[in-house]
Amino acid sequence: MLILEQVNKTFSPGTLDEKHALKDVSLHVRPGDFISIIGANGAGKSTLFNAVCGVFYTDTGRIILGGKDITMTPDFKRSKVIGHLFQDPMRGSAPDMSIEENLALAAGKGGWLSSVSRADRAQFRERLALLGMGLEDRMDHRVGLLSGGQRQALTLLMATYNVPKLLLLDEHTAALDPGTAEKVLNLTKSIVAENHITCMMITHNMQSALELGNRTIMMDQGRIIYDVEGEERSKLTIHDLTEKFRQASGRDLDNDRMLLGVDQ
Amino acid sequence: MSFATILGLGQTALELGLINSLVVLSLFLSYSMLNVCDLSTDGCFTLGAAVGAMVAIAGHPYLSLPAAVCAGMCSGFVTAVLQTRMGVDSLLAGIVVNTGLYSVNIAIMGGKSLVNLNKIPTVFSMLKDVLKQTPFKGMETLIVAFLAVALVVVFLSWFLRTRLGLSIRATGNNPDMVRSSSINPIMTTTVGLTISNGFTALSGCLLAQSQKSADINIGSGMLTVALASLLIGGVFFGRRRIPVRAIGAVIGAFLFRLVYTIALRFNMPSFMLKATSSVIVILAMFIPYLKRQYPNFARRLEARKGGR
Fold first, then answer.
1. What is the ipTM metric for this complex?
2. Domains in chain A and their CATH numbers?
């Protein structure tokens, strides 16, 4: 599905701010995988996602998606097959445009000079209704008027409207209140399961990292330091994870937010 | 002031307002939709005037309109390529093109800085002959300008609802989202600026032909005037639907002209036009800013008083 081979990325090379953000990262994601990714701040989790969806080109290494080398493919072309959600619910939609117009762009159907047809509108309504937020009755409202949770749910719908090969979730529920976060997370789970989307999710909540999906990856200082699945994973506790972190990195995992899992 | 004078003034304001509103609609596309402040507007306006004048002199008054539009689109394309493909900052790209256009425009006008169209058939003079025997006598400028504006408004209302138009709007609103919709924002910016500059040049062409001369300074300050009109229109129609906002831009241009015409009646010297437009733009930007900042300012003042 997704293969990363020896991927390296250094930001601001040759300056005082030089940061080797990804160090020889190799990863093989199988079709249907749901991988949760954990790690302290600055471990390179988001950088890994950005490398995969083409926010920047990697310095060395190869990225292969669905058998195609996409290492030098520009971001807007990769987004045909990769969906990307961020912590900030504002990033995925255009605030001054209506829900319908946002969806029309995400659907990307028809020629450049075609406009939204009645059939399109009916389909948008149908898909919006699945979110269970009443957005289907507000299709001509500006997206800027929606709450964070509604907006993130809409972004999720937009990112998966044309089923992507790979869905990247970068703490996409962290900025929402607990109730809404749960709702959006459940939506995510059902959409991913229904469409058999291969999915990677960054989370700071160790509990949900272990509960969700079939595989967990731990990152530290630009490396993947622990990759677990199957039986071994099913027996893991949060305590085991922190212990693994100490073993692999030689440091304590000193991130309260992560240990307590306050954000989800 | 007699009724006829008022009517005459109103008609002049309407004519010039309509012609100017093409530039306002151009900015509506580039500034309001694409979020690019296109500083090549002045030069592009003159380009349209120059090309239109020369084509009319060559004996093709009708051809002068599409010719001017094409010239403007070329200019817009260059501005767009500079800022999307050549690493030139967006504002700087406009300034550079604007400067370059000065030479281009003089070259087009055969090395002169003023071209006279007095005895040359133009779209207006041709229509004037047609209308001589009808009730529309003397309204040729109004009719041509109105048709052009109506055409552009209808075009924009349709275009901004197509997939391409939606992409252009999203590019100005949230470029990240455009990329994640598999659309190249470089393409949308290029298309948007190309089209918008076509309108600007059309406006220049019409103004030159209606006043029967094109000179190298015909476009100077046009950006500010148009921006002022756009902001005036935005005050009344800011958050409405696209067609309403486009018509709002036209009304803004007319209101601006009307205020200016009245000011002229009260003996404001005509050279004050540009200062007036500057002040309107400043006020349109400053008042919302003041609204946001004033509470904090008041509190700081309070704190300072209380501190002593």
1. 0.89
2. 2-81+164-260 (3.40.50.300), 97-162 (no CATH)
